[in-house]
């Protein structure tokens, strides 16, 4: 099944309707006419029946499994293979009868093969391109193709570059000893291992062991390679002090592997960066990333170890969860200062439930405590619902209790605030009669004249400098007493009654009390202040009206330790600079 403008096709069925093995991946390269069956690293013990394409050369990649012997030529599809990679398996021997008839290239590297039959060596020398590095066998002295190669390697340190060049020309198909990676596909690729110590740009040449050079444009400071067998395309930009991912070349087929470790990357590019969306494996260890965003949509491998990432946002976490369910996503996350907080409990659950998809799960630690993240319980970073509701309930009860206490102790609190000049906007009252002459009219009998001195001292000479009115100083002789009382009440913001036994028995005292009561009955603020002296035991001497007032209203007790503070607070709350100025000894003028 080939899509328009696509370099490869998805394989469905081959000859005789055989499908691709369930655990493998099959692709058909439409331009190279190559059919690749990728069964690498699947933990398989044997080569399954294989499909055969209608046209094209079939290749089987079976490296990294548990294969102990090759199948017989009767296995469906096996005998038609032209390229076979069974490296990194557990093969012990190899026979001609096990090789596909049309085989052109064989990779048996890194197995347990200790001997090769002479006929097999002769057959492979004539017909097959062989990669056998990593096994235990040595060539026999009469096996000329292998012994020449082996003897040349033993004396390699004594060879000149011209001798090496001539040797490779005789045995290689295409080789260029230049500053660019080699374009090569040899009969004996293992020889490259020895060249690592003899030629310049060893890093580039060593990569040619498994990869061939990419013919397109490659970013500066990077190496671009293509694996001939697995069709993997690699861009290696590691260790170049790069601060951003450059535009990447787009291969003809397959995803891109980007090696970007040991750089100075802080932010990932967006999908509009050329070639970035095609990245399938992303290596970003040892950079300066603080967040992970704009990941390629087809990502299957991500290494972000040793960066500065503390949190992963919900969008990225959803991508991880989705990819882990639909593909074999592999993550490496250690070495970052992860935040182990209640806000990041989703990430905590993702890591603890990650299983094999997180390759370093036992090394991921919390940035603040250093504890292993998989050993961190959600209950230790998030309080339980019970604790939350208990805390909320206790807080609410404390708030209600505080409000009740403030209401209950409102008056003492306001008095204290007013006394100490704290929160005056709450403690002070706005006065409605700011234009009146006096702050208070002091009502008392002539028998209690000795009590006046302390009131004058405390109120007129104190910090507030109140202006008092009392008959000894402010009434004119010859004016009727009822008229004087009425005018004093009218010109004063407060009326202070000094209620003693003498006052209760005084006719003029009771009159002043009644006039003051009637004058203030319609006021919106409390103007009448009754100071009750300890000697008064009851109000029997008062008439019913005045007695009712004393029973139903509050008054100040003179023996109260906080008497003066309460009295001062009951006085007008008017600033000194706004006070109407009167002469020190101005008396009341009657019309």
UniProtKB/TrEMBL annotation:
Bilayer-crossing regions: 386-409
Source organism of the structure: Drosophila persimilis (Fruit fly)
Keyword Isomerase carried by entry: no
GO CC terms of this entry: plasma membrane
PROSITE patterns: TIR (PS50104)
Major location (coarse): membrane
Boundaries of every TIR domain copy: 436-571
Annotated GO MF terms: signaling receptor activity
Keyword Signal: yes
Protein's UniProt name: GL25612
Lineage, uppermost ranks: Eukaryota, Metazoa, Ecdysozoa, Arthropoda, Hexapoda
């Amino acid at each position: 099944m080939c899509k328009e403008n696509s370099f490869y096709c998805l394989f469905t069925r081959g000859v005789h309707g055989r499908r691709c093995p369930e655990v493998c991946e099959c692709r058909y390269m439409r331009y190279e006419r190559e059919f690749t069956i990728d069964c690498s690293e699947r933990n398989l013990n044997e080569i399954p029946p294989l499909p055969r394409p209608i046209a094209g050369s079939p290749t089987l990649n079976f490296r990294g499994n548990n294969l102990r012997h090759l199948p017989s030529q009767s296995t469906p599809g096996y005998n038609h293979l032209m390229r076979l990679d069974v490296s990194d398996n557990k093969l012990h021997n190899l026979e001609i009868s096990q090789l596909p008839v049309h085989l052109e290239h064989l990779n048996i590297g890194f197995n347990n093969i200790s001997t090769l039959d002479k006929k097999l060596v002769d057959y492979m020398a004539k017909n097959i391109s062989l990669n056998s590095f990593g096994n235990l066998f040595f060539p026999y002295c009469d096996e000329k193709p292998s012994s020449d190669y082996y003897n040349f390697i033993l004396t390699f340190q004594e060879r000149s570059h011209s001798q090496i060049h001539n040797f490779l020309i005789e045995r290689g198909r295409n080789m260029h000893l230049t500053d660019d990676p080699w374009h090569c596909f040899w009969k004996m690729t293992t020889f490259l291992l020895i060249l690592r110590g003899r030629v310049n740009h060893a890093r580039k040449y060593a990569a040619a062991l498994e990869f061939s050079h990419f013919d397109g444009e490659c970013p500066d400071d990077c190496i671009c390679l293509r694996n001939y067998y697995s069709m993997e395309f690699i861009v290696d930009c590691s260790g170049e002090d790069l601060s951003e991912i450059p535009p990447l070349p787009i291969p003809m087929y397959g995803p891109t592997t980007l090696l970007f470790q040991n750089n100075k990357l802080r932010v990932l590019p967006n999908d509009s960066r050329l070639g970035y969306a095609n990245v399938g494996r992303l290596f970003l260890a040892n950079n300066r990333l603080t967040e992970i965003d704009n990941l390629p949509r087809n990502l299957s491998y991500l290494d972000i170890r040793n960066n500065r990432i503390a949190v992963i946002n919900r969008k990225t976490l959803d991508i991880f969860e989705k990819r882990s369910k639909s593909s074999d996503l592999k993550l490496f996350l250690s070495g970052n200062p992860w935040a182990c907080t209640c806000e990041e409990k989703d990430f905590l659950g993702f890591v603890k439930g990650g299983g094999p998809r997180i390759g370093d799960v036992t090394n991921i630690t919390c940035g603040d405590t250093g504890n292993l993240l998989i050993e961190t319980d959600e209950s230790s970073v998030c309080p339980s619902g019970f604790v939350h509701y208990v805390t909320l309930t206790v807080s609410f009860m404390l708030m209600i209790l505080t409000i009740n206490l403030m209401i209950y102790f409102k008056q003492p609190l306001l008095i204290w605030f007013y006394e100490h000049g704290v929160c005056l906007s709450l403690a002070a009252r706005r006065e409605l009669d700011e234009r009146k002459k006096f702050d208070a009219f002091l009502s008392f009998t002539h028998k209690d004249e000795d009590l006046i001195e302390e009131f004058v001292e405390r109120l007129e000479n104190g910090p507030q400098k109140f202006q008092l009115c009392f008959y000894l100083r402010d009434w004119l002789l010859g004016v009727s007493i009822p008229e004087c009382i009425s005018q004093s009440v009218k010109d004063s913001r407060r009326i202070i009654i000094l209620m003693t036994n003498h006052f209760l028995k005084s006719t003029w005292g009771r009159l002043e009390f009644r006039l003051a009561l009637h004058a203030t009955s319609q006021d919106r603020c409390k103007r009448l202040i009754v100071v009750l002296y300890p000697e008064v035991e009851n109000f029997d001497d008062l008439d019913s009206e005045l007695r009712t007032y004393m029973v139903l209203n509050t008054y100040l007790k003179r023996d109260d330790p906080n008497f003066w503070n309460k009295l001062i607070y009951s006085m007008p709350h008017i600033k000194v600079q706004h006070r109407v100025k009167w002469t020190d000894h101005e008396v009341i003028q009657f019309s």
